[in-house]
Amino acid sequence: MTNDERLITHLRHVDLAVPDYDRQLEFYTDMWGLDAETSDEGIAFLAAAGSPEQYSVRLRKAAEKRLDLIAFGAANETDVNALAERLGRAGVTLVSEPGKLQTPGGGYGFRFFDIDGRTVEVSCDVAVRQHRRLEEGESVPVKLSHVVINSPNPEATVAFYDKHLNFALSDTLMHPRMGEMMWFLRTNRWHHSLAIARGPHVSLHHASFEMRGIDEYMRGTGRLLRGGVEKVWGPGRHMAGNNTFSYFLDPHGNTIEYTTELEELDEDSWHPHLYDFSDPTVSDQWGTANPMNEFVAKQSFNDVDRGVFVAPPV
């Protein structure tokens, strides 16, 4: 498969099911800086101020915490249909056939289970949301930057996204004792919109949100620290992707990140690196973050995802 056959264009949103819905909604709006663009009883669609996407996070009230789905965009109905047909022929389970979407902005799309059983949505023709250019000093997310997922068999998961969805490998993290641990995958010129980490079970590793710049990233980090939100790791700057990072826990223990300056690649000339993260400069070029230790790793493992091979009800 060549780049000409790449049918996924970009990351759209990440959808979370949460038991304490009201507390999560308050956190993601009042503290994290998203806008409750559309909400109904027990479900909210939260938009990032600078993004044309109708929403970057969907919260759904549920008895159990889970990752409902990860959504990606495609260029048009032809590409959506072609991807659904390709997946079906390969034996991938389709959760829904291509059709009109009932979520904000409408559009046309379908859902399927990836190899680990998480639900993935691909859509096109979603109405563009009225968004704006953020002003200097505004410490709220511009957009959803990337999503990282845990897999107990990450080599197979990476192979799935390469074979079926044509995600390209940007870089890999390894450790001399543990082997390869994280793979950064892209579907456009940005260094990664999806990364896959080796973990003890299927779960969400973290969701990352792009800030306007370094100053806004640091202001947002400071606001969360002053607000008593539990910090996991940061602030610092990774080597893979060259982006900044500040990781925090939302009220249900999902790790979420503020970032900025993710690297934009020349895909024609890029060659993936194999980075050894036993070198502390690989994890944090600045040397300002707390050490990558068992606490950081444990928070990134998250809870076992209860949504594996179970499609969300909406």
UniProtKB/TrEMBL annotation:
<dbReference type="Pfam" id="PF00903">
    <property type="entry name" value="Glyoxalase"/>
</dbReference>
<dbReference type="InterPro" id="IPR050383">
    <property type="entry name" value="GlyoxalaseI/FosfomycinResist"/>
</dbReference>
<feature type="domain" description="VOC">
    <location>
        <begin position="10"/>
        <end position="125"/>
    </location>
</feature>
<feature type="domain" description="VOC">
    <location>
        <begin position="143"/>
        <end position="261"/>
    </location>
</feature>
<protein>
    <recommendedName>
        <fullName>VOC domain-containing protein</fullName>
    </recommendedName>
</protein>
<dbReference type="InterPro" id="IPR037523">
    <property type="entry name" value="VOC_core"/>
</dbReference>
<dbReference type="InterPro" id="IPR004360">
    <property type="entry name" value="Glyas_Fos-R_dOase_dom"/>
</dbReference>
<dbReference type="InterPro" id="IPR029068">
    <property type="entry name" value="Glyas_Bleomycin-R_OHBP_Dase"/>
</dbReference>
